[in-house]
Amino acid sequence: MAAYKENAGAILNPGNQINRLSSYNTEGVYGWPGVEAFELIGYAKVSNKAADKANYKSFSVTIPSPDRRVGDRVRNDRTSCVVQASADRPAYVYGASIAIAQDIPSAAQDRAGFPADPVTADIQGTNTEIIQFGPDNSGSPYGVPATQLNGLAAATSYLTIGATTIITQGTRDTTVGNLPFWTSVSSSIAAADAADSMMYKVVADTTFKIYNTNGITQTAVNGDGLYISDADADAGRAAYILTRVNYIRPAFGVNWNDIQGFIDFASQVGGNDE
User: pTM of this prediction?
Assistant: First the structure.
C-alpha cells in the first residue's frame, strides 16, 4: 500500500466542484476570490463492551480512503484529522460537527429485502458526561472556556450523555457557537459580545480529536469511557462517532501564472501577440 501523500488535492474553482470536497486529499474550493475553503469528514469506531470502557476515552479520527477494496487498496486510510495551516497562511476554523451514525434503513420493517442487518449501534457512557470533538492539545482537549478569548466555540462540538447512559444513533449537533457571526452587541460592546462570534485561528497544522470528558470547559480527558451494549458487540455491530470540521485559508499570493497569458510581450518562439 502506498503512503498518504500530503496536499494531493486541488483547489477548485466553484464551477468545477460537482461533488463533496475530498477530505482524504484535503481538496479545497475558492469559496470567494482569494479564500480557500475546506471540509474534513471522518469517524471513530467504538466496538468495546462496558468492562473495557476505561481504555476508550480519547479517539483519533479516521478519514477513510477513497479506495474501497481493502485487498488491493492503493491509498491507506488517514489515521488523523489535520487542519493544515502555517504562519504565512493561517487556517480559520468556523465550524465543527459531531454525530452518532445510524445505518440506513434502521427500522426492522424497512429492511425487507436488504441483505444484512444494520452495522451501527447506540453509544453508551456515564450520565452528564459528554463526547467532544475539537482541537487537540498534546492529547487533551482545549475545551470551551467560560470566558472565551480565541474562538474555541467555533471549533468545538459535543453530545451530552443523558440519564439513560445512551446516545442513540442519529443524534447530532453542530458547533458550540454555531456560525461565528456578530449578531448583537451591548451598549458598550463588551468582550462577551464576541464570545461566539470569533473563528478559531491556527498557524500550524492542528489535529482534531474526540474526547470523553466531564463537561465542555474541561481540559483533561476525565470521562469514565465509552462503550456499546453487550448485545450489539456480540452481534458484530459498532458505534461510529462521525465528525466534520470546516475552515478557510488565504489563497497563495498572486503569481506570474495568474496573469502572464494576458500581457503583451515578445514570444519565446519569435514574434509578438500581433
Answer: 0.87
